[in-house]
Design brief:
Order of helices and strands: EEEHHHHEHEEEEHEEEH
Number of helices: 7
Strand order of the largest sheet: 5-4-1-9-10-11
Distance between the termini: 16 Å
Radius of gyration: 18 Å
Bound molecules: nicotinamide-adenine-dinucleotide
CATH topology of the largest domain: Rossmann fold
Number of domains: 2
Strand content: 15-25%
CATH architecture of the largest domain: 3-Layer(aba) Sandwich
Largest sheet: 6 strands, parallel
CATH class of the largest domain: Alpha Beta
CATH superfamily of the largest domain: TPP-binding domain
Helix content: 25-40%
Shape: elongated
Structural class: alpha/beta
Length: 234
Amino acid sequence: MKKLVVFTGAGVSAESGIATFRASDGLWENHRIEDVASPEGWAKDPSLVLDFYNMRRAQARKAMPNLAHETICELEQWFDVVVVTQNIDNLHERAGSRRIIHLHGSIFHARGTGKNEELVELHSEDIQIGDLASDGSQLRPHIVWFGESVPMMDFAIEEVLSADALLVVGTSLQVYPAASLLTYLPSGKPIFLVDPSPSIPSVGKNLEVIRTKAVEGLPLVKDMLLRHFNITTS
Ligand code: NAD
């Protein structure tokens, strides 16, 4: 089977009712990004940050995977698929995708603020001030904030280096190092980009841009991939 890496951003979950980042002047659900997604914001007002992610978690729990998540899962019938997502929701998991790398963490996990990096799975509970990790430190969301390192990046790069094609869906390609993933695809391999307002990366000629919402573009790109690799479906 050919290997396909699917690199997704907030746009793939937009039709599931989860707002993207940059939809409204760089605010995230009416908050300045530096207030809710940076170590400085956490140091200044941890209650506000916990409330913000508690709300995001409740919202993500109610959201349902859409046709784009489902089509990405369906691609596993013909491709060895690895999803690399910048999203903190779990809609790829709930659509059935089997191999998923969360570059920026997960809203459904917490970790301590001390040295212990053990993850705590969150089911229906919120994180409150005073909720502690096993090392006694305050729990925080397991989210990579701006200015923090991206431990899963090396794993994602490994996957892209051995891919036969890259499918990029619903990302502004503004957040680094995540956006640099495109540069690791071996030369000559195709990139398909689905986004209604795409930021066009400078990656040479093998780029096919599908300017639509993910729910409309994914069925189209599925057919394009099958044609590109001469795969018949019956
Ligand atoms: P972004 O908000 O910077 O960019 C969103 C992209 O999606 C834009 O290019 C936009 O044109 C496109 N888009 C909008 N509606 C779309 C649709 N219906 N179908 C397809 N594309 C659509 O998002 P980003 O590039 O992922 O970076 C923002 C960061 O914010 C990420 O690191 C992520 O962790 C975080 N975030 C996550 C979620 C989530 O988990 N669902 C939501 C908001 C932000």
